[in-house]
Structures are given as structure tokens and as C-alpha cells.
## 1
Amino acid sequence: MEKQTNNQIKDGFIFGGLLIAILFVTLYIPVIGYISLLFLPIPIAMYGYRYGWKKSTLLGLIVLFSISVFAFYFFVVSLPLAIVATLAGVFIGEALKSQRHPYEVWGRGTIGYAIGFLLLLLMIHLLSDQSLVTEYRLIIKESLDSTQILLGQAGLDLSADDLIAIERDMMMLLDLIPAVLMIISMIYSFVTQWLIHKALNRFDQTKLAFPKFRSFQLPKVILWIYFFIVIFSWFNFSGLPMVGLVIFNAGLILGVLFSLQGLSLIVYFFGKRKQPKLLFILLIIFILVFLPGGMYLLRILGIIDVGFRLRKLIK
């Protein structure tokens, strides 16, 4: 028991120091900040994998407290990032310790990242004392003014109605923030989990790995959820804008998942037919070039695969 306590304390110092070091790199070397953010949850996740989510949460809180005591400025600017790292790390570490399926670990990590990023936006809004929506409106106005000047010099003029229509379309991008936030969280969670797999396999002699992408399979319940979302999207929620926003973003997120399902089916098909990888790469490039049409076709293919299990029909 005493040896285990000593190991927890020793690992706490090691992983806590590693987390602070990565925070320093993220804040003071902005060029690689977006990349180092992928490594931030690793110390918390590894500690949680060894000792549980309560101990890993406590480690994150101790790191925040230590920073606030010894470097207040660093604490203020690193607090949001430390919260993102702690949440994502705790979610991934506990899922790994519970021996969840890798895709379930990925889902939990995505939730942790999404909550962390949401808190990050809220804290930026509170600390900067500025509205992100207002700032975005100013950027749109400046962009439209510059565009109007350039078109005027070229002998082209935009009417007031055209400017209003363009501004309305650009403001609609704000409605996509939840979906974009979730998709970014999915990407970050996947890469971070892959890095954690490599670290744990190296230092803890585990054999963690993602299953082959061709085995990616969404449960049928996702299809039913998507079906009801499509039905609800036909209704007019002008009096309940938040409900309409949730349905809109949920549909986009599920659409991305079905596109992944369709892509995995193509990988499965090419593997069964023993087709050259170059042909598959060319097909993916073709799909990406013709976005969003290519993604829409992948989504349809993914929906059919989930509903009818096309892989069972492929010999």
C-alpha cells in the first residue's frame, strides 16, 4: 500500500511537470501551439489510466493551483487550456482503464474535448470582455467594405440588397459553431488517443490500438436518431430558434459520421477485392475535390450500409 502511494506521488510529480512543460510550449511557441495541444491531455490520461479518474482530476486541479500560486499571469492565460487538457485526459484515461472499445474511448474523448473547448470560448469571452459575435460582425463589415471598394475600382457595384444577402449568409456561419466544435473535437480526440496508445504501449507494455478502419461500424440506433432528426427538420421552429439550431447541427454531425461509415465501406470493399491502394487513393482525392457532393454520396452509402449491413453481402 505504501509503495503504491509512493508510486502515485512520484508519477504525479512526473506527469504534472510534463503537463506544465507542454503548457509552456503551447503558450510561448505559438507556431506549434495547435500541435502541442494534442499532447496536453496525455499526462492526465496516462495518470488516469494507472490510478483512476478521481486521482487524475485531482492532479489537474493541483497543477492549476500550483500555477496560480507561483505564476499568476501564466495561470490566467493557461487556465482554459489546462481545463481542456484535464477534461479530455480524464475522459480518455478512465475509458481506457475501463477497457472500453477504442471507438467508445474516442467518443468519450470527443465529449471531453467538446466541453473543454466550449469552456475555452466562454472564458475567452469573459476575460476579453468582448462579444465574439460582435467581433465577427465587425470582421464581416470590414470584409464587405474592402470587397465593395475593390469591385468599385473594377467598375462593378454591389447593391444594398446584395450586401444584406451576403452578410446574412456569412452570419449563418455562426449557426455552424456547435457542429464545427464537435468535428474539431473528434479530430483532436482521435489523434490524442492514438498518441496515448503509443505512449502506454511503450511505457506500460500494453497493446492498445484502433481496429482497422474498414471495421468501423455505427450502431443502428444512430440511423433511427438521424431519421427523427430529418423528420423534425421539416417543421418550422422559427419560434424556437435554439431547437432548430440543435437539430441543424445534430444533422451535420451525424452526416459526418455516416460519411465515415461510407468511406469505411469503400475501404472494406477494396480490401475484399484486393484492389491496388493507388486506386483507392485516387478515389478519395476525387471525393475530396468534389466536396460537398462527394461527402453527400458517402453519407448515402453510409446510411445504406448501416441500415442493410452491406458488408455481409460482399463476398
## 2
Amino acid sequence: MIRIGQYNTLEVVKTVEFGVFLDGGEDFGNILLPKACVPSGTELGDKIEAFIYFDSNDEIIATTKQPLAVVGDFALLRVVGICGIGAFVDWGLEKDLLVPFSEQRRRLEVGQDIMVRVYTDKASGRIVGSTKFNRFLDKTPANYKVGQEVQVMIAESSDLGFKAIIEEQHWGLLFRTESFGKLFPGKKLKAYIKEIRPDGKINLSLQKAGRAKVDDLADKVLTTLARKGGFLPLSDKSSPEEIFKEFRTSKATFKKTIGGLYKQGMIVIERDGIRLNDN
């Protein structure tokens, strides 16, 4: 069955001067793949992976170009136009994606980079975008465990910190005190479940809890030292940015880790960095 707004592997059933037609089955018939998107050497009977969507004439069409998001995805997209029914965002295809006014939490402006959820409108069957995420998230019970590693995408910042989308299913909050490095809407990274509150809301952390994060970082520090000739120009005097760039961790955790390695006699702390203890 053809999935609109997704990649489909379809058979070439007809060649014409302006492209090839792919077999869309009984529901959709033959679907045009324009000549510019046809892989070199394509013949009848070949199977091509193509993205299926609606062109500017609202006709079903195929493309081998890769959109910035497919149906079901959240993505950071740029507003490129405004019309009488909404805003258009660039999602990497010839036809821009419409975000109707009814799907905007606040009015969008040309040039903005915004987080969008791509979905299929049930009434029209068309692919559209939305910035109203609440109706797409927290629809299923959160079965995470404290300490579990999850994939998140930063959605927006707030006074408390950063709202993040967990596994494309649930809301999570990353407090500013738990944040380090450059965080911005659209950034994807791994995080850990810090707390599941009685009201069901989820707090996140970018580091493993307690001793586990120190032990994990200690292994990384020793491995990195060995790989770089036994010396790193990092110490407790280094900036948080320098430490994050190398180890993706906070300065506080780094200081605690190298302090532990020093007490164990694993490293020597010098004025301009840390060195493996050859003894």
C-alpha cells in the first residue's frame, strides 16, 4: 500500500520522454517520477525508492529528492512565504509545505526557523505542518525508567530551561541547571530520564545519574589520553566550552572525574593540562 508522505519502493511500469511512471497500485494508479529525478540507466521493471507527495497541482507525484522531514517527523524548517491560509516552509522539495493559520500557535514570519510537525490532514488527505505539538505528544503512557537513555530533540526554550521531545512521543523538560553546550530548537541528542513526576511530566538530564556519570567519563578520559599520546591540555581551569567540546559533559562532572583519577594515581594534574601517570 502506498504511504503518502513517506518513502516507497515502487516498480517502473512505463517510460516516457518526461520521466517514468511507477506502479501505485489500485488506489493510486501510475505515479510520475519526473525525468530530473530518474536514476541513470533506469529500465522497465526496476524498483526505485521514492518519496510520494502532492505537487503544486495537488497531483500525486514521486521524487528521489530527500525532504527535510517525512510525515510523523518533527523538524526545524524555515518560513519562506505567507499566503491567505497560512505560511509556507521549505522542506527541501519543489512544493513548499503549508502550515495553516489554524495550526500556528503564533503568527509566523518569513525568515523564521521554526519547529514543525509534519502530518497528514485527515479531512483533506494533504500533507501539512503544525506548530501545535501538544495534540501529537503524550498520547500514550510514558513507560520510561529513571536513568534510561533516550533520544530527544530540543523544541523550545523557556524560563525554566528547554522543552524537549522524547523519542518523538512525549514532552520532557531539561532544566537550565542540567544544561550545557549549545542547545537550540531542532538539535538532536541523547539524554537520560531524571525523574517522572506524579503528574506524569518528565524531567531530563544530559548526564547519567550520580556515580555512573563519573565512572563513564573516567573511562572516556583515560581512553582519550591514551589516544592522544598521554596528555590533554584540559584541567579544572579550562572553560566549560573547551570541556564540553572534548567530552560532551559539564565542567563540574569533569572536575570530579579528574579529581578521582588523580586520587587513584591514574593521572598527573599539571598546570596546563592532565597527563597519564606512567608509573
